[in-house]
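This part of the workshop introduces the protein records we will be handling. A record pairs a protein's sequence with a compact description of its fold. Comparing a sequence with its tokens is the quickest way to learn the format. The record below serves as our worked example for the rest of this section:
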Amino acid sequence: MSASSPRRRSSRKAETAHRHADESPAQPSSAVFNDARAEALADEKPIRYIIQNLERAYGVPVNRREQGAADPLDMLVRIILSQATSDTNSERTFAALKKRFPDWNAALRARASTIAGTIRSGGLANQKAAVIRDVLRQIKQQHGTLDLSFLHDAPTADAVAYLSQFRGIGPKTVACTLLFACHKNVFPLDTHIFRILRRTGLIPQKCTDRRAHETLNRLVPEGKFYSFHVNLIRHGRKLCRPRQPLCEQCPIVEYCDYGQAVI
């Protein structure tokens, strides 16, 4: 155990809050759920130490776009293209899209089938092409221009609400766009992260995508959203694998319900 990491502690307060948050049918809103759960988890599993131990194991990742703001619309399209494919494939399809269409107005004028043909190698081409074209159409209708640079200066809650209005744009796509392009404190969850958070007990086994994102947005300390996101993915690929996780090598096993049960 890390010298600076206190052991996880379980209190009556935490247990009560967990029970009320996860089992009570009377929760009227996700905000109540998350307030109770965040309070319980902050008491039982101090997330700053989980982040610290991951950084000691994997380093402190640096957002390669920190030196200059990335274009939010470019990033939004990148994230759409990254769904259900590898990083290599999504980067290849984004490059192909930018080469085929010199600007997003040209993509908007094109048929969805033309966009789909351009991004075919990334998988789910027809679905992604329809989402991209629909998002471009709505942005143009609302603003008269295909430009999302205003999101850099928008309050985080407003930026989240704006991107969430688009059909086919879920919490992960919203969070990735705002975290990577605008450096906002919004936490994206992918398959690896969901698996780790469930195993550690940071989110319940049965938890909606939206509630999971809301809960982590409350728990992660300011300035640590990017680091925690990237290192959880690294951890999920290297040690906390879907099958046969290497719990004996895990840097956060002291905070993990699953790990404590198997070692």
